[in-house]
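INTERNAL AUDIT FORM
Audit reference: QA-55
Scope: verify that the stored structure record matches its stored sequence.
Auditor: D.O.
Record contents follow.
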Amino acid sequence: MAIWVFLYEPNLGFKVAFENAFTIIVLHGVASYFNNYYLIPVFLRKREYFTYFLSIFLTICFVCFTHIEFLLWADTIDDSEKYNLWTADFFISDALGVINTMAITMTLLFFKQWFEKERLADKLEKLNIETELKFLKSQINPHFLFNSLNSVYALTLTKSDKAPEVVLKLSDILRYILYEGGEKVVGLKKEIEYLQNYLELEKIRYGNRLDANIIVIGETSGKEITPMIFLPFVENSFKHGINSNIGNTFIHIKFVIENKQLLFEIENNKPTQKLNESPDYQGGIGINNVKKRLNLLYPAKHWLTIDEEGNTFKVALKIDLE
């Protein structure tokens, strides 16, 4: 005789059916709670499999015997059928019901724990990304400031009248770094103006021997970009090209905005003398820094190429702004 006979037999009446259903729910609930919050943490997670399955077996036996005792105590069946309660068929049927309930609740528990683990992992990943981005940004500012102060120092040594103008330009750039550089995104127009100020500062330092310009093709309004993402490329052009050339030098920058894509290109002439340090144009703190930032901020949404063609170095960066 299956367990469900006692739930749905019309002759039992509503009161008896309710008592049986309530008893089954309570017993199955206690067994599931005991399994999920005691047996699994204490034995299964510690890989004590024998003890765990033995405990599960004893728990199922306890529930089945308790159910049978309740049915006998409640006296809800005829005396002629009571012997069926102690048969293997009834015990197995009752045990399968308990196992089914425990399996469902275990599945729900594991799904809940998996979901919480994934949510926590996602939260930690976002926190790690934000922490790494802050660290990378903190590398940019001192790196840029060091180069700019060198420019001011060089002019002060020669007592150049251009030193005050350089300091003023540097002040504007540092203001941008302090108030805009900490933002997640800034207007593309502001970022281009920031680079223009940087080039103007360097023009004052190098004078007529430096040919530097920025060309913008397309509409910049309404477009946003991560601040200071292009600066390392500009700095690298000066470090590996301009600073190492004795004669006239050039650095040409172009922005092309089309639909929701931005193409940034920068080109400068190669040094006329070999650098003492590694001549690899892709090296240095600045370029490695910006590559990490691009991978974090624009995963699968940017394309970067760095080429050496003839007497020039050329960088092309395409970013999906969507």
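Auditor finding: record pair retrieved intact. The chain has a mean pLDDT of 77.
Action required: none
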